[in-house]
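Give me structure tokens for this 266-residue protein.
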Amino acid sequence: MKHYFLLFLLAGGFIKSQQQGIPKGMLAPNQHHEGKAWLNFLGQANALFDHNVVLATFEAGAKLNWHSHKEGQQLIVLSGLGHYQEKGKPIQPMQAGDIINCSPNTLHWHSSTANASVSYLALYSPSPTQWDRPLTADEYSASLLRSLFDEFAALADKKDVKAQMELFASNAVVESYRNGQRNSVLTGQEEIETAFSSFLNQFETVEHKNGEHRVEINGNTATGYGSCKVTLINSETQLEWNVNYTDTYIFDGDQWLIEKRISNFE
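Here you go.
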């Protein structure tokens, strides 16, 4: 692909245009995806530019099948939240400002999250997309659990502890360690909510940057391993921690919930 600088300028224009009501385009037929996805074909490859430019907008819960591109693909995320995964690698979050490069002939998929839409520019060559199979039930569960992991962090940044409690089972346990020493054990939503609120309210700025998240799924239960960099700022101090989470999840009715979380702060 060529002429990236011009395309980055165009991306900024599209973000502004979206806010002013740029059309989402046509609702795509469900041939290679599940859920609702709109496509607006903004530019096609020609003698000057060797790639297509498509604005894609996915409603919450929409996901593409596994697929690949002969010459690769670049995604410029404009708004919302989504997921991206290459074959054999962990699921990674997509959010506004992210630029994701997929190598040629590499199987991958991308989607919105379970609870949020996502909009991005897709840049790719005119070679036909090579479509593969849909996500399996476990692959989609891994996507839902990544959503849960990221939603916890996003709500922490907003200090919306009450909404966080909806991510926990009623009898959940949160066990925290600091530099290898156990710091606290909290049991039940009420105790967890009180402790989380008391702690977060000490800080004016709360920022979580999630890293990798992998899961082992066994029917209606799962174990998750995730990492996060946490920054906490008030008028007197700034704290930074690298946190590793070990989570036990349970599928309760129609959603995954955190049944136990072990947090290791370093």
